[in-house]
Structures are given as structure tokens and as C-alpha cells.
Amino acid sequence: MRSPLHPKATLVSVEIEKGFSAFQCPTSKGYWIPLQSYHTWRTRSPITVAPLPEGYEPSFEHDSTEPLFCPESGCLLHRYRVGQGLPFRIERSPKTGGIWLDEGEWQALKSKGLHDQLHLIFTAPYQRHLRAADLQRTFHTAVEERLGTEDFQKVTEFKSWMSHHPEASYILSFLQESVEDAS
User: What is the C-alpha to C-alpha distance for residues 124 and 61, in angstroms, rounded to an integer?
Assistant: First the structure.
């Protein structure tokens, strides 16, 4: 099989974890993970979270917008956001289910406990959740820019207090009435 990043490079069989076979690109050090290999490993391995080694900085130099192709079927790989504070995307074959990880991405996924949940990253609910979180961050940023940091902090504290208050709906009604009276 050929590397999705370096089509002239032949992928080499390696063991990512004990009992987990994959293929590595000798040029980019990325991994091609066949679907069956991942599922077999996942069902046999205990769930673990391994912190990144001290000073570890993953290299995401290969995480580009260039189209990548499945080394098994030749089809275009689909890109999926990972989230959880990880800035990269991972690619998956829509035909074979195989996964391409650039150098450092396996270790980063493992540090967040996502390495044994890769199959969930490709689901619509997971990707919807990431988009909703982005939308919420964008909204909060816009409100903060409009109000200013100090007022935004006050409103955020009030919101937190009110969300736990047993009469929150009454307070909200009172505030709405006050705003309408001021207009």
C-alpha cells in the first residue's frame, strides 16, 4: 500500500500498541489504521488514558487541506474534526473505514482518552456537538466584544447565579418587564 501523503512511499507494517497492527509511512511517520485492526484491538484492550510525556509537542505539519486518498480503495478520504482541545483533523475512508493519522496524532488522541473512541469521532452527533460548541464560543465572544470584558464578566456571574436559583423563570420575567418598561 502507498502512503496517502507520499504516494511514492510504501507503507510499512508496525505495531502502534501491543496487539495493534497498523501501517506507517516511512517519510511522514503517519499511520494508516485498517478498520478491522482497530476494532480487534479495541475489543481486546483495556481503556486507558496516557498523559503526554513532559515537553511533548506534537507536530501537525502534515495536517493540510490537500486531498488524501485511501491506500486500500483509492477513494478520497473524509476529514473529521477531533475537538477536545486538539487542533487537527483526522481522515477516514468512506469505503473501507480505515483511518489516517499524521505523526503525533495518535499520542495526542491517547492523551485525551480518544484513541479507543475513534469510531465516535466520525459520527454525526459528535460532529454536531463540536459545531454547537463553536457556535456558543462565537456567540460569547461577540457578546463580550459588545459589552466589554468587565460587563460581560458581571453578566456571566449573574447568569450562573440565576441558573441555579429556584425562581429563575420569575427573575427572567421581571428583567424582561423592566427592559420593556425602559423602552
Answer: 27
Residue 37 makes CB contacts below 8 A (sequence gap 6+) with 20, 21, 22
Residue 40 grid coordinates: 480487534
3 state DSSP class of 107: helix
Q: To 5 degrees, how large is the angle CA 76–CA 7–CA 15?
A: 90
Neighbours of 93 (CB within 10 A): 24
Residue 79's nearest CA partner among 100, 104, 60 is: 100
Phi/psi region, residue 38 (left: phi>0; alpha: psi -120 to 50; beta: rest), is: alpha
At 21-67, the pLDDT tens digits run 999 999 999 999 999 999 999 888 766 545 555 554 555 555 567 89
pLDDT for res 65:
73
